[in-house]
Amino acid sequence: MIEFENVSFSYEKDRPVLRDVSFRIETGEAVGLIGANGAGKSTVMKLLLGLLSGEGRIAVDGVEVRKENLREIRRKLGFVLQNSDNQMFMPTVCEDMMFGPLNYMVSREQAEKKVDEVLAQLGLTELKYRHNHRISGGEKRMAAIATILAMEPEAVLMDEPSSALDPCNRRLVINVIRSLPQTKLITSHDLDMIWDTCSRVILLSGGRVAADGPAREILRDRELLEKHRMELPLRFQS
Questions:
Q1: What's 151's DSSP letter?
Q2: Contact 218, 201 (CB under 8 A)
Q3: DSSP conformation letters of 49-107
Q4: Which pLDDT tens digit goes with each residue over 57-70?
Q5: Interhelix angle for 137-149 vs 93-103, to 10°?
Q6: Which residues pair with 205 in a beta bridge?
Q7: What whole-number distance in Å separates Cα of residue 219 and Cα of residue 234?
Q8: 86-121 in b/e burial notation, b at 16+ Cβ within 10 A?
Q9: pLDDT above 90 (res 231)
Q10: Contact, 160 vs 132, CB < 8 A?
């Protein structure tokens, strides 16, 4: 589904952010991308979406991430931003959810039908006509996820989906993420959330893949995490 082959990237000459990064994510996998600040997690997401261009090969479902393919690539990928305010820009949740499908020439009737289906799936039917500036942070995060699902992506990318949420809303978001059938790539410093939602973890450090394997192994490895300036999930700290 998602392939990185020997990918390198620098914002400044001779200061690489990513160095020969390679990994493959299969269809249906839920993968956590973790690492300390500056490890390159956000850069991976931007390269995957074609917002940046580096060296090496990146492909989504066999289609290489190149300028001429970006429309097709972005139909396959749904990106949930860390700050929902940057994603929800229409007056109501319904209008936000319909915006993407309508731009892809889906009829208004079909778009609204998809809105109803997604909101029902997530248990958010009551948000349909709510104004974005009048819903809570947790509701807005859920609505942002719903907006992406209305586009029917094959894979969902999420940047810090649990940040700034209270415990109740954090649990709601985790439950929604776990229920999604799509391929998932999630970046987060919340390793307890990664434990709850991902079966596999890729650890970036110094712009390289420092570890790639089962979440249940990597997230219990105190020595490995501390070596790369991270700590065990809170549930394992004593």
A1: T
A2: yes
A3: TTSS--EEEEEETTEE--GGGHHHHHHHEEEE-SSGGGT--SSBHHHHHHHHHHHTT--
A4: 999 999 999 999 99
A5: 20
A6: 208
A7: 10
A8: ebbeeebbbbbbbbbbeeeebeeeebbebbeebbee
A9: yes
A10: no
